[in-house]
């Protein structure tokens, strides 16, 4: 094979390698981005759960949003407070009549959550009714 | 050189002898030779330059190909090891915020907020930092292990108790099966690591500190209390529950599910 033929063959090879490098690099970035993305529950999702009385999902959202380091809006905080109220009510009601547990911390957290529910406080009555 | 006619000294470039005026015979041959040499020189120069340019471009292309191929192989390797790459970066991030994480974990444990503990531990990927010897997070590894089962059981009880419209009764049996499965995992591991620990434990000695042992016990007691309350099990039923077979546990919970509102 003459030098000229080799020379001509190298051009498409360079192009091919360059494209492969770009795609592999993008794939690496996507993979790393997925690994480091902080998942939190958005306000819209939380509001949907509240409106449809999916309190468990609301509760899960509150736990995730509390665990991850993200800035929450006032509405997000209020919706998470509903989730936390539901969770603490769940524990409080199960443990209040037992001798082995102090339910005061659950009660305190319920009161705190109730104060934080803001405009969504109407859900408290519904949750209380569920545990009666 | 000398003139063939008068013998005087003449310059090689002179066309005529400056002394006798005769035309120099050697001139034509010399001129032809010089033109030929010059042409050959120019041709050789042109060929050398042309070949040099061709070789330089070829070398440059080969070099670019080699660099691209190396970068491509490195990127493939990085892609293949992206988990390891993430792990290294995450461990560094966790180490940078170590005191903050440890405080949060300690607070959750002190307040018996095991569900919050489990979510915090997993959402922040703190398990990445537990496999290094001497890591401050190692002492929470067993609490996280039980915390994961605890969180799953609590979520199944919550789901079964919930009145969510999407929670259809068709899923109830599956959820009870999973609940029993996680309950048994918890009980078996509690026996293996706490009640009846073997000489060799996978977990570090720090996992067996007084406050952690208290937390494991608290989790186990809480789970029994939750089952008793939400499935309306009486004292005898809850006392004998851990000793029942998987099938018996499932049937008992299914029977009690039916009487729940």
Count the beta strands of chain A.
Answer: 0
Largest sheet report of chain B: none
Helix content of chain B: 55-70%
Strand content of chain A: under 5%
Order of helices and strands of chain B: HHHHHHHHH
**Percent range for β-strand residues of chain B:** under 5%
Summarize model confidence as the mean pLDDT of chain B: 88
Gross morphology of chain A is rod-shaped
Q: What order do the SSEs of chain A take from the amino end to the carboxyl end, as H and E?
A: HHHHHH
Largest sheet entry of chain A:
none
Q: What form of chain B results from the Cα inertia axes?
A: rod-shaped
Question: TL;DR of this structure?
Answer:
Chain A is an all-alpha fold and 132 residues long. Chain A is 77% helix and 0% strand. The longest helix of chain B is centred in the N-terminal third of the chain and has 55 residues, at 26-80.
Characteristics of this structure?
heterodimer; A: 132 residues; mainly alpha; B: 261 residues; 9 helices; 69% helix; rod-shaped
Question: In terms of topology, how is this protein built?
Answer:
The complex is a heterodimer of chains A (132) and B (261).
Chain A (H helix, E strand, L loop, with lengths): L2 H34 L6 H9 L3 H13 L6 H22 L8 H13 L5 H10 L1
Chain B lengths: L25 H55 L1 H15 L1 H13 L3 H10 L17 H21 L10 H24 L14 H21 L4 H6 L5 H14 L2
